[in-house]
Design goal:
Blueprint lengths: L1 H18 L14 H17 L2 E8 L15 H13 L1 E8 L4 H11 L6 E3 L5 H10 L5 H8 L3 H6 L6 H6 L10 E9 L2 E2 L3 E7 H7 L7 H13 L11 E2 L10 H4 L8 E3 L4 E3 L7 H13 L12 H8 L3 E7 L5 H4 L7 E3 L13 E3 L3 E9 L6 H11 L2 H8 L7 E4 L2 E4 L8 H7 L4 H4 L9 E5 L1 H4 L4 H10 L5 E3 L11 H27 L7 H10 L2 H18 L3
Parallel strand pairs: 1-2, 1-3, 4-16, 7-10, 12-17
Antiparallel strand pairs: 3-13, 4-5, 4-13, 6-10, 6-11, 6-12, 8-9, 14-15
Helix pairs in contact: 3-16, 6-15, 12-21
Length: 558
């Protein structure tokens, strides 16, 4: 039934497009000629008479369990957002696709180059696919729209010194054109760029119960895990307390204690040199340490690979240590223990071969993609939409919502009210009070613009988590959670080569790491292990990443 309805809607939509009633952006063909010019002119006159121009926008429904874009009309933030469109003379027509169907719909519509909207979320397309559409002219250069059709708002936002300048530089292809806009998030602490992080956290309530010290070294951590087991920290009568994390991934907290970057090819931010953890000095000591934990049953090896087994260990209240964001508050309820408290620790000293490193969320984030298609014939409409999405009012509605409903101002600073926080989603949906980030941004119809002081988040977490975050804010050295936030758009050749190499290389890396941790292969054959990675293109991946890093350092001004 759904497929029949979808085919009917698709055909109907196509007919409406041809009739020129669905979208003013799709009212005239791209070809030139007097008849085409007349069609365009007539369409614009009709739109002006109606008082607005229509733009067809497509995106996925939000994945939030309570707050959905389809229910947008009940939210005060949306009603204020609508005023921006009315003021600018735009009439947005939305095509909202179920979240789990959007990827297929996006790929099908773009590949067929029919029934395309004017503006859409293209995040689900890979670099190679997007660049192919760019080559075909299916996706339009955003920078040209901004230069020629912005009223100055978008131009100022993306210009050097503007809030979107860094994102714009990262989105620039080698030819200088920019083909999409992105989510933008900037976090500060004490007025300077500030980063949260991912680290190992240990059960604070178990430490207190057993009168144990907080670990200060990797060796201390080992002895803590042993004490948790031997003294039955969870009180179930069994020696089943373990470290629960996924060592098949480099981003696991303990690898960083040994100075290792968090991807098979990544970098230390302060150095700006592409490197693989396989080549770093602390790598052998790292595998020896994890092998010891595995042999003594202090690490649950079923969690290698992550997923359900990892969640299950936490749910059974066996996880004496986990890996997550330092200020997270969502893992404790999952243990079923009302007294559960995870205390972030580290980075701990683990080897004389290297200094511990911290995996940070970059203070400047630029991610996900929204683009204009060739169906958008009236580029003034495209420019107007960009001006709206770069306006101060849009940023305020997306990030803060409505004063008195979702935020308040204290001592000249905005602060979100409890209704706008994650724990209040259901209540917010019932009351129609929510920030735009949850209604239309955060990976959905429009991109977020989030510029916030970290002090806001620190103020709403337990003090022991807040204290850790404050104390570690200036820690160095660091490695990024998401190296793409430092990489400009690769070339088509680089994209293709990465695709050819990454799968087999990643599989071999994970397999070797797992086997070394479990003692299934010998450290004595180290040169052979490394050669197997070289044969699969490890050095070539590092070379590509270094090229992108060099472009970043040349083009991006933090």
């Amino acid at each position: 039934m759904e497929k029949k309805l979808w085919r009917y809607l698709s055909v109907t939509l196509a007919v409406l497009l041809m009739m020129g009633v669905l979208s003013a952006c799709a009212t005239s063909p791209q070809t030139t000629g007097s008849s085409n010019k007349n069609k365009s002119k007539g369409s614009n006159q009709a739109a002006d008479k109606a008082g607005s121009k229509t733009i067809h926008i497509m995106g996925p429904e939000t994945g939030n369990p309570h707050i959905h874009f389809k229910d947008r009309e009940k939210y005060s933030s949306w009603k204020e957002f609508q005023k921006l469109f009315k003021e600018k003379g735009l009439n947005p027509k939305f095509e909202v696709v179920a979240n789990d169907q959007y990827q297929t719909t996006l790929q099908t519509r773009m590949a067929s180059a029919t029934d395309m909207p004017d503006f859409l979320n293209v995040t689900g397309l890979g670099d190679d696919t997007i660049l192919n559409f760019v080559d075909k002219g299916t996706i339009l250069p955003v920078n040209q729209i901004i230069d020629e059709h912005s009223d100055g708002t978008a131009k100022q936002f993306f210009a050097e010194g503007g809030k979107g300048a860094r994102s714009n530089a990262l989105n620039a292809a080698e030819n200088g054109n920019v083909y999409w806009i992105s989510q933008i998030q900037a976090t500060t602490y004490d007025g300077k760029p500030g980063s949260t992080n991912q680290v190992i956290s240990v059960r604070k309530d178990w430490l207190d119960k057993l009168n144990l010290e907080v670990p200060k070294t990797a060796d201390d951590f080992y002895h803590m895990l042993k004490a948790f087991r031997e003294k039955d920290a969870n009180g179930n009568g069994q020696q089943d307390e373990v470290l629960a994390f996924n060592p098949a991934a480099w981003n696991n907290g303990i690898a960083q204690w040994f100075g290792l970057v968090n991807e098979i090819s990544c970098f230390v931010i302060e150095d700006g040199k592409a490197v693989s953890p396989w080549y770093q000095p602390g790598i052998k000591d790292y595998f020896k340490y994890l092998n010891k934990l595995a042999k003594e049953g202090l690490m649950d090896t079923s969690t290698i690979g992550g997923g359900d087994p990892l969640d299950q260990v936490i749910a059974e209240n066996k996880a004496g240590a986990i890996f997550d964001y330092c200020m997270q508050t969502w893992q404790e309820p999952g243990t079923g223990d009302p007294d559960a408290a995870y205390l972030p620790i580290g980075p701990l000293k683990a080897t004389d071969a290297a200094e511990p490193i911290l995996a940070i969320e970059p203070p400047y984030l630029s991610y996900n993609r929204w683009a204009f298609t060739k169906e958008c014939k009236d580029l003034d409409v495209a420019g107007t939409l960009l001006d709206i999405l770069c306006s101060d009012k849009y940023m305020e509605l997306t990030q803060w919502g409505i004063e008195g409903e979702t935020y308040e101002v204290k001592d000249g600073e905005k602060k979100l009210l409890p209704i706008a926080l994650n724990a209040s989603w259901e209540q917010a949906a019932k009351e129609g009070k929510e920030i735009g980030d949850l209604i239309w941004a955060n990976g959905s119809i429009f991109p977020k613009r989030r510029f916030v002081p970290m002090e806001n988040e620190i103020s709403i977490v337990p003090e022991y988590k807040a204290e850790f975050q404050r104390n570690i804010i200036d820690y160095h050295p660091t490695t990024p959670l998401g190296k793409e936030n430092y990489f400009p758009v690769p070339t088509q050749e680089q994209v293709q080569r990465r695709l050819e190499l990454n799968t087999d290389l990643g599989t071999q890396s994970s397999q070797l790491a797992t086997q070394l941790i479990l003692g299934q292969i010998s450290m004595d054959d180290w040169d052979s292990h490394i050669q197997s990675l070289k044969d699969l293109g490890l050095d070539e991946i590092l070379k590509i990443d270094q090229t992108l890093l060099d472009r970043y350092k040349k083009n991006v001004k933090d």
